[in-house]
Amino acid sequence: MSTPQQETTILVGKKPTTSYVIATVMSFNAGAKKVILKARGGAIARAVSTAVMIRDRFLPNQVRIADIKLLTDKVTGQGGKERSVAAIEIVLERV
Amino acid sequence: MSTPQQETTILVGKKPTTSYVIATVMSFNAGAKKVILKARGGAIARAVSTAVMIRDRFLPNQVRIADIKLLTDKVTGQGGKERSVAAIEIVLERV
């Protein structure tokens, strides 16, 4: 028998928001206590949408937003030049 | 003599991020203790970028992120139909 993953991290990218909503719901249904949504740059809005849809519509009264971190990530672009990009980590937790 | 505004709210929309960075710096320089960045939908990423640029680059060790709220806003679209949109409120505070 496998032990369920207590904590799952989902990288939010360019797919439609619903993909990340489904992945989050599936993680909680599989036994996760925490799901961490991570996103950078333009995908940040999608991570926020995913979090509020989970909390307010899909798992109301079952999941809360436990923590939100805003970060600056260093990204190496074309030509090896480093640039900064904003990033977010949203911790969703089963209540 | 005018009393400086203790708290300023900046609505982050479709302008370049630097516009909101400048507006935030100017508010703090004008005496604000708190600047609240509000954004909806796609502009959320810009609000997050503004916040981390202020904290990590423009006013390091002077401003901290005191609170972040994620919300669902109701928006009335074309034809009077209501739809939900994710929103963020980031509270920047002088340390």
UniProtKB/TrEMBL annotation, chains A, B:
InterPro entries: Alba-like_dom_sf (IPR036882), DNA/RNA-bd_Alba (IPR013795), DNA/RNA-bd_Alba-like (IPR002775). One of its GO terms (biological process) is chromosome condensation. It comes from the Archaea. Pfam families: Alba. Keywords: Acetylation, Chromosome, Cytoplasm, DNA condensation, DNA-binding. One of its GO terms (molecular function) is double-stranded DNA binding. Its main location: cytoplasm. Residues 9-69 form the DNA/RNA-binding protein Alba-like domain. The keyword Transit peptide does not apply. One of its GO terms (cellular component) is chromosome. The modification N6-acetyllysine is found at K14. It is found in: Cytoplasm; Chromosome. The keyword Membrane does not apply. Acetylated. Acetylation at Lys-14 decreases DNA-binding affinity. Binds double-stranded DNA tightly but without sequence specificity. Involved in DNA compaction. Belongs to the histone-like Alba family. This is DNA/RNA-binding protein Alba. It comes from Vulcanisaeta distributa (strain DSM 14429 / JCM 11212 / NBRC 100878 / IC-017). The gene is albA.
